[in-house]
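ARCHIVE CARD
CATEGORY: sequence design from structure
SOURCE FIELD: tokenized fold
FIELD CONTENT:
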């Protein structure tokens, strides 16, 4: 391909503007339908996610949605138990929340003295962290005791991994599948604000 050295400055400007516009459109397409970056602002997912972690979320995995209407036009799969998802907070859709899926539509979820049960089977996994030894009765607060609760169809029950310090489905209810943005899958950057440094050991960590 030959380069026209006699091309006018206006032609160069036009080419540069076109290239910039194409790059912006590609970036918007990727952000809307494929992958999006999020920053972790709170400790509700400790120890899995720390304050200051920057993550990437796979938006394509759960299907292609029409922006704003959030209607799935090409379904691929639905969130599974154990997935870490980003979603629109039901009580304020302007906010994005990140939690772990505990139960899906049709599941029966219960908590007895901080022990989780799904479909009458105890949920055994090491991601849930409890920092407060006190147990609160369910008639006072549903943090440590609730249910059994049956999850509606096309809904999710989510909890933070930092179980005693998470504002989640125990308090405000279920997540509609339409509200799900995608699945968190990797930490690409992590900044420790307190110690003013990069957490190098967290970069590139795959989320499970």
């Amino acid at each position: 391909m030959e380069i026209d050295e006699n091309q006018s400055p206006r032609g160069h400007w036009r080419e540069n503007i076109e290239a910039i516009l194409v790059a912006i459109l590609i970036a918007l397409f990727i952000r809307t339908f494929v992958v999006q970056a999020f920053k972790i602002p709170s400790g509700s997912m400790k120890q899995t996610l720390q304050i200051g972690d920057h993550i990437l979320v796979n938006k394509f995995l759960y299907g292609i949605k029409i922006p704003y209407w959030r209607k799935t036009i090409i379904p691929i799969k639905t969130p599974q138990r154990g997935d870490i998802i980003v979603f629109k907070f039901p009580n304020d859709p302007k906010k994005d929340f990140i939690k772990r899926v505990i139960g899906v539509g049709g599941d029966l979820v219960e908590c007895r003295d901080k022990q989780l049960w799904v479909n009458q089977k105890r949920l055994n996994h090491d991601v849930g962290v409890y920092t407060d030894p006190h147990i609160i009765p369910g008639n006072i607060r549903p943090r440590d005791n609730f249910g059994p609760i049956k999850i509606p169809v096309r809904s999710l029950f989510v909890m933070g991994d930092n179980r005693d310090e998470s504002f989640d489905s125990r308090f405000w209810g279920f997540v509609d599948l339409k509200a799900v943005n995608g699945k968190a899958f990797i930490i690409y950057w992590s900044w420790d604000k307190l110690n003013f440094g990069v957490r190098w050991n967290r970069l590139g960590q795959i989320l499970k």
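CARD ANNOTATION: The mean pLDDT is 89. The helical segments are 9-34, 169-172.
SHELF: design records, drawer C
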